[in-house]
Protein: transketolase
Organism: Paratrimastix pyriformis
Amino acid sequence: MSLDQNCVNTIRCLAADVVQNAESGHPGAPMGLAPLGHILWTRIMNFNPADTSWPNRDRYIQSNGHSSVLLYILLHLSGSGCSMDDLQHYRQLLCRTPGHPEAGLLPGVEGLPRVNPHGRYFLAFPPSHDGPLGQGVGNSVGMAIAQAHLAARFNVEHFPVFDHYIYAVCSDGDMMEGISHEAASVAGHLRLNRLVWIYDNNGHTIDGPTSLTYSDDIVARFQSYGWHTQIVEDGDRDLSAIQRALENVRLVPNRPHFISLRTTIGYGSSKAGSEKTHGTPLGEEDLAETKRRLGMDPSHRFVVPNAVREVYASILEKGRTKQAAWQAMLSQYSAQFPDKFRELERLMHNELPPDWEAALPSENPEEKPQGTRKMSGIVLEALFPALSGLIGGSADLAESTGIKRNGSFQNNPVNRLIHFGVREHVMMAICNGISSYRVGLIPFASTFLIFAGYCLPSVRLAALSSLRVLFIFSHDSVGLGGDGPTHQPIEMLETLRSIPKMVVIRPCSLNETVGAYRWALMRPNQPTSFIFSRQNVKYVSETSRDISRGAYILRDTGGNPDIILVGTGSEVPLCVDAARSLEPGLHTRVISAPALNLFDKQPQEYKRSLFPLGVPVLSVEASCCHGWASYSHAHVGVDSFGLSAPGEEVLKFLGFTVDNVVAKAHRLHQWYQTHPVPTLFDEPFGEMRATENIPATTGTCTSVTNPEPAAPMGAGVS
Amino acid sequence: MSLDQNCVNTIRCLAADVVQNAESGHPGAPMGLAPLGHILWTRIMNFNPADTSWPNRDRYIQSNGHSSVLLYILLHLSGSGCSMDDLQHYRQLLCRTPGHPEAGLLPGVEGLPRVNPHGRYFLAFPPSHDGPLGQGVGNSVGMAIAQAHLAARFNVEHFPVFDHYIYAVCSDGDMMEGISHEAASVAGHLRLNRLVWIYDNNGHTIDGPTSLTYSDDIVARFQSYGWHTQIVEDGDRDLSAIQRALENVRLVPNRPHFISLRTTIGYGSSKAGSEKTHGTPLGEEDLAETKRRLGMDPSHRFVVPNAVREVYASILEKGRTKQAAWQAMLSQYSAQFPDKFRELERLMHNELPPDWEAALPSENPEEKPQGTRKMSGIVLEALFPALSGLIGGSADLAESTGIKRNGSFQNNPVNRLIHFGVREHVMMAICNGISSYRVGLIPFASTFLIFAGYCLPSVRLAALSSLRVLFIFSHDSVGLGGDGPTHQPIEMLETLRSIPKMVVIRPCSLNETVGAYRWALMRPNQPTSFIFSRQNVKYVSETSRDISRGAYILRDTGGNPDIILVGTGSEVPLCVDAARSLEPGLHTRVISAPALNLFDKQPQEYKRSLFPLGVPVLSVEASCCHGWASYSHAHVGVDSFGLSAPGEEVLKFLGFTVDNVVAKAHRLHQWYQTHPVPTLFDEPFGEMRATENIPATTGTCTSVTNPEPAAPMGAGVS
């Protein structure tokens, strides 16, 4: 058989071996996609297996993440640092080859350098997790936006600093998920001509033939988005057709590219063309039969013929040469365009400009009441010129989320403001892709807090992938008023706080808003959710610009307090006013807690210095009560849906008034005159957590809020 | 001007009046859609304003929920019970005309009879909340599925019992949201020919002209889904073209219908054609100018000329006649097809068959370990024949979520098993639509728990709309194994439990699974989320079939316990084994807590009978720790992301072992030998909640978990 055929069959058999050996996994798609993988990686893609951080490499995204085995095998063959041992530990404890690609576990898995959740450190390059269907294609649009933006900023005639392509392999599942519509619509509208989606049209999903669930004319659909479309009829055998289609991409500028590739799931297996090959090993017998059919020796496993090794060795050579040429060009560039180059270098090193903090606005003691979303807008507007890496926008709520209309990316990709349209889900996936791109870009995206529910899978993956993305959520409570319960978040704060590693910050003032942005921007491997109000919030003096400990004493009458009021965001002024009314009779303390996730990680002494033993604590937040039992003895919250009325009337109706908070505080204080005050943050558990031997570098920001021993109780990985 | 024009202009001016009067709201789209609304309601739709519960009425859905004013005005004019007073209280406290349509507040707002969250009771007919963009069009597909299914079951030649249409008015936002792709793809695939979407193509979103964000060829897109498409070029003036397009729908069978209607946002206003009319009142001056331009008297508000009243009075007549004819047909039907009729009547009365519980399977004491998802499958399989109203399926995970392949709806709409494809979001929206249809159908839908993140907005709306939908989530923890952290839910349980009115049940046995289904099926106004494991769960004897109190004592060594272990689902057997190992030295109690939301609503005495004062409580659940502080002093949970390895190894690695639980229990017990045991569920707050005067009928199942006074602290509405 031909050398190419030999390579393809080697990949197919390796895929079957890997899954059989693991006794679990997905062999079907990798076997069907072997021809594409081989042609794409050996004939088309520009990358250097020896340096997977080359900024101008082509990007490869396995959006059908369950086909991770194909990616792992191609990384192994091309010498990108996935060993045979890794292939043999697919889906095993602490492996680098999990069921779905994980950011940072392997060089070549588009993943940030990071400590994986279990403390093992791997170098890798721009990331993010693929897996939940549709996320990878969403990320690919973000990477294409990053490429277009940086090309517009830095490319000069004869100096194509950024001219690579982004290839995303996707499946029927990706095509069916709504996010694929949002992603394709954005890419078509923005004419992202470096973006290539290859659709593994194998006609099968888990439940069976796609005819069960699906009769879209997919090619026509992508034409309606303004994409350049091609069809490869025989993706199993016609290698030259695959190559031709991939080469045609270069002939059509100004449009993204969609290639529908007909393949046979589990090609080579006796179960080929059946969903039975999707998610289970072939079984010993069929595995042997498959190898015979493909001309390989059934008596051996994990075999890579030398001829095949040689073919892939040549990639390494080609890649080294390509990158060397690019480096040479870059040094000329640095000589001819020193200013551009300095800026480019800073971005490539992912550094913030030395003086950026000078741009942060200061509070004026005469602040008028305003929505905290306005404060967010003030900070963003101030930072936008100072931080040339900031890029983002909102899902059709530019005004209401405080981001002014600057030059728009769609008019000129050199601009950093993106109008995402009413597409919350892909907006966040795009931001993940931009952050993954890792050339110093810092994506931000804003929408109403209620719509966090529309984009939760992408928000979660930012945390799992340790991506610096600024998720800006406004209209954060029933206080938004007339739009009513369909738009008033109740459970969203708790939902976001419960996501491992996500940090949620709800500022009450311009100071805390500045502190929030400052904290987030300085953490390159950390996503942050910002929570802002629509309604005006009364000015509170002496709030802190340092939110890094999550909570702090805002007001204290001194002495041991009789009662502590703790609030976040728009409810902090309410706590202050309530304290004032309580003070004639009681020693009070007001704690502002903008970031509970960060407070959770503080040492016991700090927690106790805020919340002394034996002092009743009343918390106030216009959100569900869930989660607050860890911090307070009683909570003024909302555990029903809201209602449609002017915001101040809704808040009054639901009990967010000084009178109500004062009454509850008295009730609480009285009750604990005659009853023991339950201990919060019980010591031993703090100690025990401290004794856990977890590398601090894991940077995990868990949502542990109740007093239990962390690690030994299963949070050992936190 | 013509009578029709008079009607149209009346609607336009009323819309402007309503929003101006409220000083907030959305005038632009209602003014632009007035011609469509007028033609559709006076010339096309079959319904009886006097009986909005007529099962064969045409359904009207305002998917662009912010245009609720149009719906309210049409309900007012047609005499469906929306008074002028209601129009004048748009967006005011406890109004029946909120910013976005709310189920059940008004007859004619597709909403269940229910007590609204604030205790005011309104009769209304099948519901659900529209508002978050894309939800209404998703619901409309569910209603069309219900119509097709019931027609296939009950229509007989000359007896078209169900032959109505479903009209959904949608906007650019609906078109951009991913869920519209999922919905259109499903509708096209299932050839739902009674479904009509009218797209308000006004070329504007909140941020400005759609050209900012959007260049899809939308008509071509819908053709790619197999829809029948039409374009109305002048939806502002050409009333006959609108009527023609709506009449053409009847000429094209076997396909859903898409009408692109060109309109001018804020037609009549001096700001017509600008996004400035989208979400703010016109202002007094422009309002007057608009009325002059439209030939109305600027000096009056809320004017409906008598001529217009008469036109709409005729709808009432027409509707009465139509329904009477249908009733006459039905009585003939009952005579000729008594069996069919009995069944139909039972469904229309939304009753379960008297003997249905007999079908519930019993536990066999020799049960082998199996995934609780298998138990769910056993129960569903047993109920499917007994409950002819059960209809649903899964998002391409039929096998792995325990639902066997029966006859599929797509092969014959008489079948009740739907293959939704990889479309979690619209699957849940479709179920909301089916439940909203209110002819005895009980929708169920299943996917992995992690994908609750893909459909959260629809799950939330089921709770907000009080819809009986069975949300079945399997693969509920890190125990799912090899697929890894991208597929292992950590925060999802807490997320679902935090949604007001949602009940989350996580059974540990076949008994509890039976109890869960029994509880959910008997509550017509209550959605339920079922949580099931992928991995095998050891058989535990003596679990209860009654889960209605949320938690119960499963095992007790008698005497006052030294320590209490509480677990849910797959962690209950672990608690039992740990208790066994503790018992030589300690008095132990094991509590199974399948439904914390239900436990929250129990009287203080019951809570105390399970959790006596002074006894340390250790909880165990393979999910995030958030929320557990309300129920226990320490928690064995997971506050990091999981990892890819065989499930049992992952669980072991994260500390879900007898040894670890026993060690933690000892540590906890020792600690509280020398420290006060913090009180859980502190009494006064329980008492105070009990004194709250909230009608039980609200059926609100809040997630209040910490010991605070409910209502006075803002949960008064719960």
The longest strand of chain B covers residues 195-201.
